[in-house]
Each structure stands twice: as C-alpha cells, then as structure tokens.
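assembly run, all chains below
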Amino acid sequence: MNAFARLLSGAALTATLAATAPALWAETPANMLVVANRIDDITTLDPAENFEFAGGDVLRNVYGRLVNFDPLDYEAGYQPDLAESWEVSEDGRSITFTMREGVTFTSGNPVTAEDAAFSLRRAVLLNLTPSFLLTQFGFTPDNIDETIRAEGNTLIVTTDKAYATSFVLNCLTATIGSILDKKTVLEHEVDGDMGHDWLKTHSAGSAAYSLVAWKPNESVTLQANPDFYQGAPAMKRVIVRHIAESATQRLLLERGDIDVARNLNPQDVQGLDGAEGVRIQEELKGYLMYASFNQKIPELQDPKVLEALKYLVDYEGMANSFLKGQWTIQQNFLPQTYLGAVKENPFFFDLEHAKTLLSEAGVDGLELTIGVRDVQERMEIAQSMQNTFAQAGIDLNIEVGTGKQILAKYRARDLDVYLGTWGPDYPDPQTNASTFAYNPDNSAEAQNGGILAWRNSWDADGLTEMTEAAVTERDTAKRIEMYHEIQARFRETSPFVIMFQAIEQDGLRENVEGFTTGQAIADASYWKVTK
Amino acid sequence: MTLGSIAITMLGLLFVTFLIGRVMPIDPVLAIVGERASPEVYARVHQELGLDRPLMVQFWFYLQDVLRGDFGTSLLTARPVSEDIARVFPATLELATLGTLIGVLLGVPLGVLAAVRRGSWIDQVARVVALVGYSMPIFWLGLMGLLIFYGILGWVGGPGRLSIFYDGMIEPVTGMILIDSALAGDWTVFRDAVNHIVLPASLLGYYSLAYISRMTRSFMLEQMSAEYVTTARVKGLSERAVIWNHAFRNIRVQLITVIALSYAGLLEGSVLTEIIFAWPGIGSYITNALLSADMSAVLGGTVVVGLAFVLLNVFSDLLYKVFDPRAK
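ok done. output:
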C-alpha cells in the first residue's frame, strides 16, 4: 500500500491535489447529525402514501401520532404521544382518545382532535397503498364521518368489530397514523387532493423535526423543532445523505465526515473492528428468512417428513459463516421485539434424527426444486440446504431467477420449495400471523396470493381460527399468550422452515448516543441522539 | 448535420427508447403502488399512466408533451423530470468537462511525444498508462483513489460535491458549483468544491487520457511516416516545426472527433464514478430510474444525453470547417 501510495504521489495528479488541500476534516458539527444511508427508495413523503423504509425514517421524526414507541424503550410497547390517554367502550368497538393539551405544529397551530380526525380520514379517502392499515378496521369513505370523529378535545374511533385494543393501537403507530396540520395542509390543496402533491415534498407535523429539503437520491435535511413538546432535540440539524456504496460509507465514517453509516456489508463491518473512534451497533429488524414446502406434493404432507426437513437445515453453520453478524437464528414467524415474540428455536442440524424420521415416513429419495432469487446470500443458503438435504437422500435442484420471476411462480403455487424473506407490514403480530398462520380458503380458486399459507397450499391446520381469535382478544396479556400457542403449533406442524431474523449493523462514531433504527417495529429516530 | 437530420435522429432516439421502455419486463404500475397494493389501486394507476391505450397513441401523446418540454413526472422524485434533469445534468457536465480537459491537456502531448520518440521510455510509459486505463475497472480505481487520497492521506474531499456543511449555501445559477461559488465570490465553498471534484475528475481524466493519447499516437505515427514530413525535414525545418506545424496540424480534425466522442462518453458513461463518489449526476439518475422502472425519467434523461451527443457532433462539424478548409 505504501509503495503504491508513494508511486501515485509522485504523479502529476498528486501535485494538483496538494495545491488544494487545506485541513478540511474536522468532525461533524456538535449539534448536527450526519447519516449515510441508501435513500433512493423515497418516492413520497406524504404519510398517507409512504410505505418504504427511508421515507418511514424521515416521517417518524417529523410527525407525531396518537400513540408511539419510545425510541429508548421498545419493550414497553406503544405509549401515549399526541393522545394523552384513551378509553375503550364496553362493546370494545370504540376507542376515545383524549388529546394532549398545549402541543403545537411547527407552523404554530395547536394540535387538535380535529387534526387527528382529518389525518386518519384523509388516509382512508386518498386510498393509497398503505391505506389497508386503516381500512382493515372497517373504515370506508362512506362511513368515516361517523367512525372517525372529533368531539371537543377527544377523538372517537369506531371499528367494525371488537378488535384487540393492542392491534388497533399498534397500527396507529405506523406511518399512516401520522397527525397532520389540517390548516396548513388544506392551504396547499390543489383540485381536491387534500394537499397530497404538496405533502410529497413538504412536512406539516408536530414532532421533533421539520423537513427542510429532500433532494431525491441525494439528501434529506431536517431542522429541529425548538417547541417539540418532549423537549428540543440536541441535534439541531439532521442530514441523511444518499451513499450507495458500503465501502464509501465506511471511509466517510472513519474520516469522521459522517456520524452514522447504515448500509455496511459484513466485510466492512469486520474491517471497522478496532478502528479508532468508531463502534458497531446492532439492532434486530423485522425481516425473516425462511423456506417453505408446497403441500401439493404428497410426500411433503407427511408431518414426519416436515419435521425431518426442519432438522436438515444447518442453521448454526450458516449463521456463523457467510451470514455472520447480519442474520440471527429465529425459528418463529414473529420477529424478536414484536408483541408476542418467542425465543424457542428447537431445531438444529441433526442428520441421524432426520434420516430416522424419513424412514419412518417411508420416504426413500425425493427430488424437489427450490426457487431462489438471484441474491448472493440466498443462493448460498440454498446451496447449504442442497448439501445437507442430499445427505439424507433428498435432491434439491436450485432454480435461480429474478425476484419477480420467482415471486410470480410462488404466488401461483407453482414452486416445490421457496426460499426468501418476509417483512412485516405493520408493528402488530397480526401482520405475520395473518399471512403465515391463516388461510380461510385453501382452494385454488381463492387466489389468495397475499397469504403465505395459501401460496404453499397449506390449510393452516386450525390456526386460522386461533389467529382470528387472537386479533379480537382485548386483554393484551392473554393475547400474547395466544400468539405463543399459535407459534408453538406452527413450529410443529407448518411446512415453513423459518431460519433467520435480520440484524442491521450500523457503524457509529463513538460519541453518538441514543441513535436507534426502530428495531423490527418502528423506524429510525433522531430526537434522542446526543454527541 | 442539417436541422432535418438532427430532428430525425432525435425522433428515432425517442421512439426506440420509448419502445424499450414499454417492452422491458418491469411493471411501472407496480413500481408506483408496490407489491401489496389492492387490485383497485393497481387498476387506477394503470389507467392514470395511460397504459391502457394503444402503444402508438401513447407515443403520440408522449411526443407532444416532449415538444412542449414536458417529460412528465418522475415516479422516484415526484417532481417534473425536466426539473430533475436541470438539477442533475450540470453536476455531470461539470465533472465530464473537467475530466475531458485533463484528458486533452495531458493525453495529446503524451500521444505526440510517444509517436515522436517511438520505442523510447516515454512511449513505453504512455503504453502502460493507456493499458492500465483500458483494463482497470473504474470502480476499483475509484475506490482505491478514495482510500488513498481521501482515507489515508486526507488530501482531497470525500464523496459528494461539497462537504455536507456547505450544502445549500450557494444559490444555484448554472448548477455547476465551481462556477456558482466563483460568481458568488465564496472562495471557501469554491475550494471545498475543488477538493471534492479533483479526484473523480482526475479519474475520468485518466480514462479520457488513456484513449486520447493512444489515438493521438497512432494519428501522429501515420503523419510522421508521410512524405511531406520527410520533405519538410529535408528542407531543413526544425524538428519542432515539423512536428507541431506540419504533422500535428494535419491530425487536428481527427483529434476533434476523438475528443468529442470521449467527452460524450463521459457525459453518459460515468455512472460508476458517480455512484462511487456519490456524485448526483445524470448517469446515476438514469440508472436509478431504470432500475425502478421510472420510465418518464429514463426517457427524459436519454433524450437529454442524446441531444448532448447531437450537439457535440454539430460542434465538431463546425470545428472541422474552421480547421480543414476542404470541409468548407
């Protein structure tokens, strides 16, 4: 390296560089947080439309919600935010929120129950992609005047069924639950769009920050709200800069030009080990890596065969080698940090046990095709499975395709085995339970491609009813218990081999405290960050 | 190029790009609404985009919009594509112009010297320089450059056009930060901008140099073996006069084409450099748009790059006429 550096420093190029090289690199300013992240997925900053990660990060810091998570204590679950308290009616269908007094939007307008009603109604009326998070409670454009209404300082929300309170409130912590400044938004309304166009690139919230600028594929700049009701944030400005390359993020972090690097690959994380002034922070995220076995194939319907398959995956071997640091073993459909998550991971690679089970089931040799998207780590997982399955006499042919190709086949129930990831849609256990452990109609005609159990032709073995019961259980402790039961049975009988949960490894300058990316259930938050 | 042929070229470019956009196995509706959208949302957006109309009708409407300067709205940025391009193109223009300048200022003399001293050490050096330029992947050189000059030595600024603290301090006039900061008389920002552009521009300049020096060398070799050069020498002209006033004079027209091509290449082909250096230019804009099925942005970007090609062609034609009396 030194020789190479010397060689290059002799070149004419170097002379040009030297002429223009003052001491440029101090640390980032003490009251500014600079984050490097891939933000090219931001397409809109309207909370009624945003459904991507980087946009969710921005909106979490810009908009208050009725209830919200505490960035430093996710285990506590949702907490009062703009709603100070709430009461559930006796029939369990209405929740009356009492709004917190004295909170203002960054415009100076007070936050009222009317603003909250407007924001939720607006999301239903605009009917954009994430609107199902609200319409699943039975809100429609025709009934929202009655089902979401403001009365004085209270907001009354009436659902079509008596759902678990935790289910409704968890959904209200999602981006779509953001409370907007009605007056400001309507000032920018064009052709009855309820300010949709304007809100794509502006903010009208009451949280810790307001949006200064979003330069697509370049940067997002946030300005602190000095009147934030939880106290003015220490970081007066937050700049999230789009840096696609992991190696570049690492360099910037090492030089102190950024405070946080969010897309480091395992090699760069390793490279930062022992680097001066830098530490790695790990957070569990919501993505699960799983394989699933199509129940259309007769051999795969045998419970013994399914059990054998679960013992034929080398979980530890993969987690400790090529997946090191970025995936951890998780064999349940609820990611850790979710309400109702469990830590039981009973399966491990046990060839003899698997062979015994297969011979008890009378299966001697089996040929299956596994569909895999052309992503490095997934191909490596498929190869590992191919290897361990072969030891028990199962031939696993790997079919590689683009994400869209493989997904289309999977959704049409045309794959023997699928290997891929699943990310939850909203921060409540119902999101994954309703797709892994729920299948009200397993017939081909049902075309329920959105449900993972259906994609595998699995009738969910009685878990459908249990899932329905759990989502309407109003006692949260009991509800948690129900998800434990569902997952226990799911582990035993389902054709899903859930393997890993994603871990985000962020590189942080040593002086950065209080930064979190929201774990599996929320988005990044900056207002507790100090340096 | 006449105005007519320019128009036909542009029309052809528009049509082919449009067609590729439509046959690509990417669903622009899915790109907008996401995988989990309901069928109603999907159908509504499909109709809003006009995708239910026949292809030629879609093209006809598109053409009318383009003539009005309206490239539509980008899915990725939710802003008019023309506005996006006005923001990203100057960044690329600034980088590619500086890269080409470096390439020409170093590449032409190197090529001439290599030809004149054929077989000497300088020719060998030129050969190695060009070979490395041709064969080394640009992303590798870019990362190594960043590692050494920014990471280890700390001589240049990191990725991006400016240090983050200066971001937004200069009102965009031309969109080229070097020019804008100079116009504003803000030399701190100017110096910071120079520090950031010097490495990516040198990298592009190096690639341009590799190409230009090889071409210059071979053009010069051809001239040096021509009879008129021998005649000039016999007449007793100094070697310097033979090289520069006779041989080099005759390769100027060919060189203009080479430089114009290299410049145009940098304008659209510096995608990897832009990604490594987080340079928000048109290369990374079009690539991002393409990967996200943002067809309005892809078409708009392609038209602008195509137009730049055509204009460079016209410009080099004009220069021919200046340097080569036969072309008049």
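Chain B has a mean pLDDT of 86.

Chain B has 14 helices and no strands.

not gonna interpret more than that til we talk
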